Amino acid sequence: MTVGLGFLGAAAFRHKLGTTPTWGTEITCRTGDLVRILSESMGGGPAYLADDTIHNSVTNASQAFRDPGDTGNETWSGTVETYLRYRGLDSLIAHAFGATSGAPTNASGTSAAYQQYFRPHNTLETIFGTLCIDRVQNVAEFDSVKVNSMTITATAGERVRISFDLIARDFSNDSTVNPNATLWSDPDTAANREYVIFEDADIYLNNGAIIASNKVYPSEFSITLNNNIVGDVTTRNAPFIDEPVRDGFAEVTGSITFPVFGTTMGASANSETLEDAMLAKTNYALQIDFVGSVITGSYSNEFKMFLPNIEFTSSEASISGPGKIGHRLNFTATNAASVINFLTERQTAFLFPLWLEVQNRQNLDVLSLT
After folding, report:
1. I need a labelling partner for 91 at 20 to 30 A (CA). Which of 69, 267, 339, 356 fits?
2. Has residue 132 got a pLDDT over 70?
3. Strand, coil or helix: what is 214?
4. Read out DSSP for 305-356?
């Protein structure tokens, strides 16, 4: 008997098919759907409805204890964390944003390098998929799953990490639709599989258009896209939730850390400049470029983030001892009032708080796979 060991497990995620997919109907995960994970914490179950009535004693029962209860609403949620890759997480990232550029553009003129973008969408209805977890003993299946939030974290000397907070409708601990995890496969071959690492990054900050001299040198940063979605239980799907919808504004927040307060950020500024900007309520533009290995010719793997309007919300440069005084600034990203010119961006008219542009080997729109 094979026992449940994490290294023997696997995960897969597939977008729901069609223009009007059915919430609560699972689909088959297959070739290209494998997600290489670091960890997952999916779980939940039915609420327990205790019987709090006061009752007379009966034979062999005690009035000091409750009678049997009932079950209420079922809720399922959790987090999937992994290393960011130049290709392989496109589907989950697209589900976090809600919209893509459609079919990727053939950038190189060959069947090698393709470009697409991911951008926020006002609504996320019909944007959901099926998540499967191979637990060795069985395949656990979450039939309909939406991405509530996504966080990207980069720390000097490490691979960049990405996590997805998920909300699911229902759970099966022994899937009949997805019983065979051997059907799942990585979208990239081993030779083309490439993680995003910290040293791939170039980061730019400016209170206006981004130019090459605006490069800055942090040791850590993170960005979170929070969709603020909530699933309600109604007579439509009880005891399970209806498809979650936004219950407030979507939010983009983040932080950037410099190893030494006042350290030179670029050609003409240091980290104190950003603290000054916070106090003066001066907004900045932020561009983060990750560029990996060459795909073909002059085309490389790329993962780029654009934030045209960030507002610094707090600053911490505390003395914790005799060593270096680090400097961390937190920020919120909002819509831009006007177009900001970035370096090398392909979408020149966006005002969204955040969008991504990628170049990789993905040649299909992950929100319209069949």
Report:
1. 339
2. yes
3. helix
4. EEEEEEEEEEEE----SSS---EEEEEEE---SS----SS-S--S---S-EE
